[in-house]
Amino acid sequence: VLTGLLEGADRREVRFPSIAPQVIYLLPWDRDLVLIVDVRAFPIADVLHLIHASGQSGYLFFENDSHEKAVYLHRGEVVFASSNQVVDRLGECLLRNGVITLEQHREAKRAYSPPGHFGKILVERGFLTPREVWNGVKAQVEEIVRSLFSYGAGTALFWEGEVRPDNVVRLSLPTKRLIAEGLRRRDELLKLLAWLESPRVQVTAIAGGAADLTGTERTLYEAFEQEEGFLAACRRAGVDPLCGARTVNHRRLIGAIRVTEPDAGSGKLPEADVRSGDAEAVG
Known about the structure:
Layout: E1 2-4, E2 14-15, E3 24-25, E4 32-38, H1 44-54, E5 58-64, E6 67-74, E7 77-83, H2 90-96, H3 102-111, H4 118-124, H5 130-147, E8 155-160, H6 175-196, E9 202-205, H7 215-225, H8 230-237, H9 241-253, E10 257-260
Antiparallel strand pairs: 1-4, 2-3, 4-8, 5-6, 5-8, 6-7, 9-10
């Protein structure tokens, strides 16, 4: 189960040839890399339970192909999280939750330039108050943590010791609650996946919906443009179907993808279809 327990290694450049020989992880070299696990055998829920139960502080990094996510913890509790996936960006999360409109999102994106803060643009434009941006960042971090449970494969690494995120935001979120929510939402996502796998279900890409997509998300979207079925699209993009279901649901919520079942009357998604946030069942 445990791929390795390392002490005293040079953490400036950490290579994992069994995972991806070409990848060099530039991670917290000044902290102790104490845990490397294959989540197919040691699920993320168990990793977070272990960190929480031991009250450890540190940096948890997860990778699965092109997907990379990080969770910062202080004494076992989540204080921040980040992701390289478009669906996990602040603007996307705010849009899905109905906090900002599609036009506000597009205007803010036009005005935004890295490495600035997207939330600052929203405040300067008068779209949100600083408090609303803070609440949005909190919801975004929670979504990123919960999304970890939608992966059935990948590698998790944990560096022990205080690691401060680049973002000035520092939260205090109960890890135990996020684990419980993540597992519940994974189960709801499995229900959605079973529905998407039906040959009767059609997933249609909406024109212009891939403007900001990259990597596997763009490949998945382009497969739907070619009217490929859900499973065929996941194979082409090289994504796990469970992760593909999460991406489809999120892109649908912002109007970039349409999902229908023509022979089922209303063509609505199953019960798992609700928006992001505290009431979300898919996330």
